[in-house]
Amino acid sequence: MGDVGKPVLQKPPGYRDPSMPAATVRPPLKKPQLPPALRHPVKPSRRHRTGRSCCCRLCCCLILLIIVFIVLFAAVAGFGYLWFHPHLPSFRIENVTVPVFKITSRSDGTFLDATVAVKIQADNPNSKLGLSYRAVEGKVALADEDGEVDLGTGSSAGFTLGKKNSTAVRMTTVAKGVLVDDSVGARLNSRYKSKEILFTVEMRMKVGFVINGKSTPRFPIRVKCAAVSLKQIGSARPLPKCDIDFFNGIF
Fold first, then answer.
1. What is the pLDDT of residues 49-66, one digit of tens each?
2. What gap in Å lies between CA 84 and CA 89, rounded to an integer?
3. DSSP H helical segments within 3-119, as ranges?
4. Model pTM greater than 0.85?
5. Is 164 left (phi over 0), alpha (psi -120 to 50) or beta?
6. Which residues pair with 90 in a beta bridge?
7. Can you list the positions of beta strands (E) in 64-165?
8. Cβ atoms of residues 209 and 86 within 8 Å
């Protein structure tokens, strides 16, 4: 009964009862780390951004200059074409002479010896442009049902043609001891005697246009003349024009 009237003492702030177990302190939670692929990229420095901007401007300027150059080149080329109206040259066989033609049949086969001189007319149809030719290389062959018989190659020096002018291109080919089939040899010999033997001519050259005495860069062409006979050449009628192949002249 003596404890009833005793006042209850207040515990001071921060008091901890020694009989109570100590509370465990939890460490603070760590923030989870994101994988490198999901992390925010570091902003490039101002110096790097300035360098990248300069490169972009330079590329844009170069592209613009190329476009302007292409447009100007197309405009100049179009104006030049309309003003000069350029045409490719034309060719036709004018004459073929055969100083030597001999078929020899031996025990080891049939052989052909032939010398052929070809004269081809080259015309410049342009009224405002000249034409400049580099050295001409050509070959002559005999046309036959079993395939062409090669008579060798020849060449001619380069030349220049004035406006609306023409000239003759001459070549000579020599074939010695060309092996042919017996039936082919007999057929060629018979056609030669009757002047029905057929000759084909093919030439390769480079040609450029001449403006005020200066030549443009020359481009390659191939000229292929259809088979003509000695009888056709001996007639007074003009022979057909040869075909010009631009793309096969390049490749």
1. 565 677 888 888 888 889
2. 14
3. 46-84
4. no
5. left
6. 123
7. 90-106, 109-123, 130-133, 136-143, 149-156, 159-161
8. yes
